Protein 1
Amino acid sequence: MATQNPDTPADAPRIDPLTLEVVELIGAVVARYYEEYDVAAGKHALTGAQARVLGLLSLEPMPMRRIAQKLKCEPSNVTGIVDRLEARGLVERRPDPADRRVKLAAPTEEGLSTARSLRESLDFAREPLAELSHTERESLRGLLRRMLGT
Amino acid sequence: MATQNPDTPADAPRIDPLTLEVVELIGAVVARYYEEYDVAAGKHALTGAQARVLGLLSLEPMPMRRIAQKLKCEPSNVTGIVDRLEARGLVERRPDPADRRVKLAAPTEEGLSTARSLRESLDFAREPLAELSHTERESLRGLLRRMLGT
DNA sequence: TATTGTTATACTCTATAACTATA
DNA sequence: TATAGTTATAGAGTATAACAATA
């Protein structure tokens, strides 16, 4: 074992400074991502959870159960989130002809256009990435893919 | 203007496929980051907000007001979060000799060791990055810095 | 019996507004 | 009067448990 500076916590030496900095940068990206997402949702007077569900449904209507799986939360929570979206006229519940237990949540016309507008106001897609050239984006894509084990 | 596939929404053409994929990859990183953070916090029976505050204080004790600034939330919320950490014996409130209005929140010994353990269980720092070579990490660092305008 | 969605309950986080004790 | 922290209140998200309708 190497001699440690007494100021250095016991767990610190296991991560080299470069890795630590990359982790901090990823943390900054995550923080910025969430911030921009909430701002975009707020512009439409939606909470983060509501915006996420609306975004999901704008791709494809689905049973309440599946929304919960996508959100990684309990199905009982989805009831309230969809209730609020439905009260605002952005989403509606339809019966599933194949199984009368199931309710399919689907966006209304207004819900669809809100979801589209939400996607557009997600500046995160353009602004930070605008700094990078095409080649750099390819490089970033490759590194992120490897990180995620894709 | 280029001819569009009728299946393509009106907002899609503004982002090229490469950028879109990078954005999706960043979204995946963000999701994974949050997941691992919550799992790590949960191992210590802490909520995300509590873990974040404890992590902050483990670096440096600070006034309630400043915690709110760091968390980007209202000061009134910090009262409750610190209350719960204090009830668990992980944090304590100390008077500020310089200004009797101020209360300094500081981790206890147990709080410090919990914070250390929390940091260690944040596998995100090591596992995904372990896939990348030193050179690749340097490259990733550069790209992230440019993205964030650092 | 098992599954889908809901309700009831309790806890945490959040913002707003009003309060207290200092400055 | 201005500031730091708190309290009170209300809304939203979360998990757990129990329930009705349907499979």
Note: The beta strands of chain B are 62-63, 91-95, 103-107.
Protein 2
Amino acid sequence: MTTDLGDDPLALDRQVCFALAVAARSVIGLYRPLLEPMGLTHPQYLVMLALWEGEPRSVKDLSSTLQLESATLSPLLKRLEAADYITRRRSIDDERLLVVELTDAGRALRAEAEKIPYAVVERLALPVSDLEDLHTSLSRVIRAAATPATTAAAPATTEAAPA
Amino acid sequence: MTTDLGDDPLALDRQVCFALAVAARSVIGLYRPLLEPMGLTHPQYLVMLALWEGEPRSVKDLSSTLQLESATLSPLLKRLEAADYITRRRSIDDERLLVVELTDAGRALRAEAEKIPYAVVERLALPVSDLEDLHTSLSRVIRAAATPATTAAAPATTEAAPA
DNA sequence: CATTAATAGTTAGCACACTAATTAATCGCG
DNA sequence: CGCGATTAATTAGTGTGCTAACTATTAATG
């Protein structure tokens, strides 16, 4: 029927969701002092990473790449525009699309940003293999969470099995 | 000197921080429909987990247990009080402390909540060993991030080594 | 070709999560 | 005892991140 999760399934220190929340906040917190001099928050930094990989990009594109709702990106992009790192304009081909491009200042920022990954890895002082393992585990969970729920009542424990 | 992070250190799909952010949002998103009938958000659920493990607890105590600022907990606890799941009163011994306790409704909610971990694990449809691996990796990173920064300029790559 | 569907963004409203500033209570030490 | 330093919460302000409702544009269909 159901997986055995031990005597106390509600034990806080066993919840993956809790560890995920704390780890995400902790690690993102390490970026704060590094990003602050560039005037970026962590989500804004992620948008810049996406743009440095390819320009121009629509909000829809950024939304699916970063797994963020366009409702979240809308005000965020306006702040990046106010900081003069990006420009926002409607596409000529399809006026539903908002085209986001880097400004010269936004492009120039990349050189500064390249130091950040090294600074974070050094700060964590963990073997890079540990970080790679974590990345692998995280990718698995992301994929699992994105997989549509099986409405079935039947299958079960850890592996789906046809009837 | 510095660790080799490959040809593009800024590649989005290699950033652990990005994977962490997406995974946290994705997994917490799975809880939303499960918690919504109980009138809880995910952070509120974590507070309830902490209280089900031991009562009463001060805000300070919850803050260090959940790794959340008391400024975040303050309004959250007021909402839990408004939902009649907890009570808030000042300690008699030390009036600086706010003592948080469960109401009968809050205690009763535990029975409902016990189904949640099973529902999430089943929904993810991942081997429990994968989740345990992830939890181990996350704990490592949390500990590493919590370790005070070595102001040193010397050490380096992945392992601290005395001179 | 007109009407309806679908798609892309924006806005509003709620709930975190952080920093900084404030308030209130307690502690430490001469 | 008294009084400055600490400690515990709260408040204010900014920035995500979500859902739901809305606007504008484009595509699809009879």
Note: The mean pLDDT of chain B is 91.
